[in-house]
Design brief:
Its EC number is 2.7.13.3. This protein is α+β, with helices and mostly antiparallel strands and 434 residues long. 56% of the residues lie in helices and 15% in strands.
Length: 434
Amino acid sequence: MRRRLTLLVAATTCLVLVAFLVPLATLLRSVARDRALASATAEAQGLVSLVGTAERPSLRLSVEQATATSGRPITLYLGDGSVLGSPAARSDAVELAGRDGRSLTVARPGGHEIVIAVRGRPEGTAVIRTFVTRAELGRGVGRAWLVLIALGAALVVLGVAVADRLARTLVAPITELSVVSHRLASADLAARARAQGPPELREVANALNLLAGRIQELLQDERERVADLSHRLRTPLTSVRLEAEALTDPAEADRVAMRVDDLERAVSGLIRQARWRTEATGAGRCDATETVRDRVAYWSALAADTGRRVEVALPAEPQPVRVGADELGAAVDALLGNIFAHTPDGTAFAVRLAGGPGGTTRLEVTDEGPGLPGDAVADALPRGVSRAGSTGLGLDIARRAAQRSGGRLGLGAGPAGGARIVLEFGPLPPAGGS
């Protein structure tokens, strides 16, 4: 924008200068021409009184002196055919002036010829002739044009400098607004724009600051609600734990207590993730192998109770992904929880984790149930909407986890005709990257 404003002012200044300087340059050339012709005419007319009264020797001397003084050729043609001064052939203008007694200025290829008729001499009408060359007609014009060009260039430079300064006062606030908006988009909610520049830009800066403040207020309200939710959930969990400890069967008490511990861990992780997600500067990292193994082990106990066969294929080495352990665990829980919620008891399922090309990671969950609806597409699943009567958040949680790492979620049919859900996680950034 700054460059465009400067170019606009430069172009406008050049057009104005051209419209002003071209007529002025033409006028200067015309003035120089008229001045040279007037000077030559005045010098020739200075000899008129001498031509009418002086004797021939004195007249010859006067013409030679005038030629030497003026620097241009002056010729005197007498009525008897004699020629005094600078020798020159009789032109048609000289013949006409001698015949009619008129004074003339005639344009010639090399300049202008000036002839003046003088009557009163005994031998007839005399004619004074002088010639003004083209160089003399344009004397001083080139220097004047150079001065005009220099003046025009100086005005253009001055105009561009002033335009650049003015453009800077406009562009600087806009650039700052852009920087602040990008900082806000990167979750730096402390960023604020200075109200500077034209009134319209100051108004935009104030509006952006108000928006950032409002976002902070809404996030603060959200954190407070999450904190309140944590207290509300702790109370029933504590009650369940106490009831579990009161069971008479030690094995049953340990089993229920373990489930309560898992539930409490999940609730704590969910609250912690919701509370601090907006303050995170980048995605977390975890070992997908360990996290998936832990969550599959959790669901395996329930699978055994419901008669489900579980097939697990995990790599022997760590498989790092650009997703936090809590978030990846929530995604795995969402996918496995859907199997238990939407397939009958005894339905087998499989979990496979493997590395993909280019440093990617692929998590595949398949089951032998009735499968997904025929029109189910991962990108067309609105958050909170389900075709199976659930909350509609499970697949969205998994999809967000994959997308946060630069990957995606895919839906399809498994080998046994059931559902096949694939989470592809993007590669880790190079060493030193975020």
